[in-house]
């Protein structure tokens, strides 16, 4: 792919993903422009400083809610490619303040497309949609019944069960204001392609993590606390729902996918980006503890029930017809043989260096949950995407990041 001398505009350049992407594009010889909100204290965003890109990117002041500032950014950058990553991206925050999320994500995306249309420029636009758009994915007959009981109705009803691995044609059942805002952006992209001929392509990335991931997202919540345990700064791990399953990729694989979509993605199309794995939050905790130096022998709930020996033992059974790296507890949960609830209060992890407490915090549970995400990425693989990093590589990068005290406290 030839990126030399190409003009790139990244919205959300100071964010977690934006800064990885900008660094990669700068290395490839592109002129990178970034839309950024002015910081009242005049400091530079930590992500950009950490990636050493703050001097090389050309920052343009702007705001997604201000269409004039977007039009100015287009004039200044004359982009060949736009990566639209800026968003309010934290799901719980969207429940607390839905209008903020809709304004930034939905109206903001509409403003960007309108600015491009009015300016009559012709960049290829890659939009960061999300696996959250799929939302409530039905994984088994039992879970289908449970979801019907919990929500009263499911729309659309599944045509097949399980609806996993998730392809681009799976039903969209967004479960949060954040997810709805991403569905809106996703459809807008295609509408501007059909109605006005804009070159838009949608990435529906599943979770992507790595060093510098925001402290409020679960992989950082876990690895940050594990390092705090290591340094004696806390005596337990505080967590929400450990039953949820996510398809975790390394952010470095996903930004390569974004670049691939910019050059080879078909306009008007949607592409999943993910690892074709799924692992539980509980596994992420246990594997993080192991990589930080604790050998996990056994886990049990506070009341001494649900005892599992060697919970992190590798399991390579096929689930949903796919073979992938997972733990014994992942397999038990996926087969419906293990589930934790708030009533369990927490888990005691027996290790060779003593017992570690994992406490369930009711405030960290969501009003509506996405129980499982597991991608089918055959479509993007056909245009050359691949996943280089395993879950353990992501965990190691995150733990290393939190060795630095300033990062733990940040
Ligand atoms: N954040 C958080 N999540 C927790 C916690 N305990 C359990 N979880 C569970 O961990 C899962 C993942 O939560 P997040 O890491 O916050 O990510 P997300 O909601 O899946 O959304 C992320 O990925 C999407 C891509 O699929 C992104 O679109 C979105 O912006 C965000 O980055 C959820 O099921 C959540 O209930 C906790 O203490 N904090």
Please name the defining characteristics of this protein.
37% helix, binds guanosine-5'-diphosphate-alpha-D-mannose, alpha/beta, 20 strands, UDP-galactose 4-epimerase, domain 1, 410 residues, Rossmann fold, 7-stranded parallel beta sheet
Describe the structure.
The chain is of the alpha/beta class and 410 residues long. The chain folds into two domains: 163 residues, 3-Layer(aba) Sandwich (Rossmann fold), CATH 3.40.50.720; 176 residues, UDP-galactose 4-epimerase, domain 1 (Alpha-Beta Complex). Helix content is 37%, strand content 19%. It has a seven-stranded parallel β-sheet, with helices on both faces. The chain has a five-stranded mixed β-sheet with strand order 8-20-19-13-14, with helices on one face. It has a two-stranded parallel ribbon with strand order 7-10. Strand 16 and strand 17 form a beta hairpin. Helix 1 packs across helix 9. The mean pLDDT is 96. Bound molecules: guanosine-5'-diphosphate-alpha-D-mannose. This is GDP-mannose 4,6-dehydratase. InterPro entries: Epimerase_deHydtase, GDP_Man_deHydtase, NAD(P)-bd_dom_sf. It comes from Methanobacterium congolense.
Topology of helices and strands:
Elements: E1 7-11, H1 16-27, E2 31-36, H2 46-50, E3 58-61, H3 67-77, E4 81-84, H4 91-96, H5 98-119, E5 124-130, H6 141-151, H7 177-196, E6 199-205, E7 208-209, H8 218-230, E8 236-239, E9 245-246, E10 249-250, H9 251-264, E11 270-273, E12 279-280, H10 281-291, E13 296-301, E14 308-309, E15 314-315, E16 318-319, E17 322-323, E18 326-327, H11 328-334, E19 346-351, E20 354-360, H12 378-381, H13 391-401, H14 405-409
Parallel strand pairs: 1-2, 1-4, 2-3, 4-5, 5-6, 6-11, 7-10, 8-20
Antiparallel strand pairs: 9-12, 13-14, 13-19, 15-18, 16-17, 19-20
Bound molecules: guanosine-5'-diphosphate-alpha-D-mannose.
Guanosine-5'-diphosphate-alpha-D-mannose binds at residues 89, 91, 130-132, 206-207, 216-218, 221, 239-241, 244, 246, 281, 364, 366, 369-370.
């Amino acid at each position: 792919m030839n990126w030399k001398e190409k003009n790139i505009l990244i919205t959300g350049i100071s964010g977690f993903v934006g800064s990885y992407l900008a660094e990669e594009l700068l290395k490839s010889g592109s002129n990178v422009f970034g839309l950024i909100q002015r910081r009242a204290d005049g400091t530079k965003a930590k992500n950009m400083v950490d990636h050493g890109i703050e001097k090389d990117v050309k920052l343009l002041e702007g705001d997604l809610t201000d269409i004039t500032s977007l039009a100015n950014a287009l004039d200044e950058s004359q982009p060949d490619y736009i990566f639209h990553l800026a968003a309010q991206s934290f799901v719980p925050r969207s429940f607390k303040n839905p209008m903020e999320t809709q304004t930034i994500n939905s109206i903001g995306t509409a403003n960007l497309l309108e600015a491009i249309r009015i300016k009559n420029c012709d960049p290829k636009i890659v939009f960061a949609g999300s696996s959250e758009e799929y939302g409530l994915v039905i994984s088994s007959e039992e879970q289908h019944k449970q979801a019907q009981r919990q929500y009263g109705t499911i729309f659309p009803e599944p045509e097949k069960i399980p609806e996993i691995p998730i392809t681009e044609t799976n039903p969209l059942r967004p479960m949060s204001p954040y997810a709805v805002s991403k569905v809106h952006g996703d459809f807008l992209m295609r509408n501007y392609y059909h109605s006005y001929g804009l070159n838009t392509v949608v990435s529906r990335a599943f979770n992507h993590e790595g060093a510098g991931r925001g402290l409020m997202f679960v992989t950082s919540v876990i690895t940050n606390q594990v390092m705090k345990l290591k340094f004696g700064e806390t005596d337990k791990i505080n967590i929400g729902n450990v039953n949820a399953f996510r398809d975790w990729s390394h952010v470095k694989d996903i930004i390569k996918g974004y670049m691939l979509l910019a050059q080879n993605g078909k306009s008007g199309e949607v592409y999943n980006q993910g690892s074709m794995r799924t692992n539980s939050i509980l596994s992420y905790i246990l594997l993080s503890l192991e990589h930080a130096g604790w050998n996990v022998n056994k886990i049990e709930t506070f009341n001494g029930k649900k005892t599992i020996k060697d919970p992190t033992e590798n399991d390579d059974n096929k689930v949903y017809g796919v073979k992938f790296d997972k733990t014994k507890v992942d397999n038990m949960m996926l087969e419906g043989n293990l589930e934790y609830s708030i009533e369990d209060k927490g888990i005691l992890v027996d290790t060779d260096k003593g017992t570690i407490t994992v406490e369930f915090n009711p405030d960290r549970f969501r009003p509506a949950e996405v129980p499982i995400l597991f991608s089918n990425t055959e479509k993007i693989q056909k245009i050359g995407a691949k996943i280089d990093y395993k879950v353990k590589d992501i965990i190691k990068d995150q733990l290393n990041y939190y060795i630095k005290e300033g990062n733990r406290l940040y």
